[in-house]
Amino acid sequence: MTRRLFNPLLVVAAGMFAAAPILVALAPNEVTMGLVAKIVYFHVPVWFMMFLGVFICGIASGVYLFKDKQSADRLAVSAAELAVLFGLMGLTTGPLWARVSWGLWWPWDVRTTLALILELNFVAYLLLRKYGGPGSEKLAAGLALFGMFNVPFVYVSVNVWRTLHPETTVVPTLPGPMAGPFWWCVIAYLALFLVMLSGRRRLEEQRAIVDRLRLAHER
Amino acid sequence: MSEFFRIAWLVMQKDIRVESRSRELVYTTAFFATSCVLVFSIAFVRGGRPIDEAEAGIVWVALAYTGQLALSRTFERELSHDALRGLLLAPVERSSVFVGKLLGIVMLMVVVEVVVVFFVSLFFSGTLFKHVFWFSALMASGTIGFAAVGALFAAMLARTQSRTVLLPVLLYPVTVPILIAGVSGTVALIQPEPNLDLARFWLALTIFFDVVFLTLTLWTFEPLMTE
Amino acid sequence: MCVPIPGSSAIAISAQSSQPALEEFVPIAELPETDRLPAAPFLVAAYSVVWILAFGYFWLLSRRFSEVERDLAELKNVLGDDLDAK
Hints:
The structure holds 3 protein chains of 3 kinds. Chain A is an all-alpha fold. Chain A has one domain (3-218). Chain A is built from 6 helices and 1 strand. The longest helix of chain A is centred in the C-terminal third of the chain and has 43 residues, at 176-218. The longest helix of chain C has 53 residues, at 33-85. The model of chain C is unreliable at 1-24 and 26-37 (pLDDT under 50).
């Protein structure tokens, strides 16, 4: 499915990204934090994509563990790489925003900490796959499942424990002029995510073909 | 169902018997825990007085490091004479074998915790014992959660290359939520005016973690150990 | 938990003392000049980071693709020779 959609998706993503800065610039400034709050237009979508990557990896890992489908494993490793990538984007844009709004580079509240933990979890996934030797795909799949089940704790923590981080009620209450560009950016990042995911999966498929051919050649 | 617990009990007894002959794990991990506490105490004492509430963090960090050591050593033991394969080939439900090993590890960690809490209380004037019941409950549920995840990962990694460095890499990101809850709960208990409601909240959260992680480990143990 | 406050911008200090957590974003038509300047470099930096990481990943992907395609071509040659030899 993703193969045929790749080119249109690429065009959509490129188009949306070209339009995004214009929309973001036109959106009104927020009262307490001013211009810097415009980081929300890409900080939050980037985190959404990171969570999406985590969930896709977790579910694909579950399927791979219990149904033994190689295609699920390929999807899992691609999603994990994207989760780490978008997590890295979020972890760099977050402190930049925090430095201006709150005067600190890293506010040690539960949400930012647990988000960092999630990122480490999936970096560990990639490390395990790279250095664990043969058979580490299944072990990594187990780790991904654990990472996925940690996500609700990350998201709920800010609602349960008052912190510096804006509460999760912020997004639904975004007023009209700000909500439009925000959701535009979310969809733009989603298109980007899907483009990257399908490209990465294709790479895994090619690698699997090379491995199979190598094995056949050695016989 | 009773068969399940009988096998788990047998596996735990086997581990205890092996351990009681050499007592290697108990002595070395208890000593390691003590050195951990010493190092952290030195790090967190200023002008001869400890930093406020440092003992909460020290207890849980010592537990995390010692626990990881105990876990990797426990499963390394199973590698000699192919004991691990023997355990896996036994005609019993594999998850009961896992629960047996888990119980053995929890018992070892409890012994280590007694040592750690003793020394931390000694160095920090006994503030940990103000609410013994809640503190013990918090430590117990934290230990169970940590041991469950740790036992699964250590078992998975027992036959993997780079296992010594990979266990902490995998274990800590997953168990940090338990550690956060444990430390926060302990801090709430050792305050001059203890916040029991908050401590109870963190205890509930830890128990919830335990239920989720224990279920997950039991569920994934079978497919993960088929290699 | 102790949190250090570096003594820098006016926004930082005022924002920290004003509220513990935001309930919702509120738009405003115009913002005083003094608030804008310190923020712009951070906004630009954040945006550039996202773009650099995204492009970096695409570049990495294309490099790995060419590696795989090279391997494939090489293998096809070798296997083709094997088949011819038989």
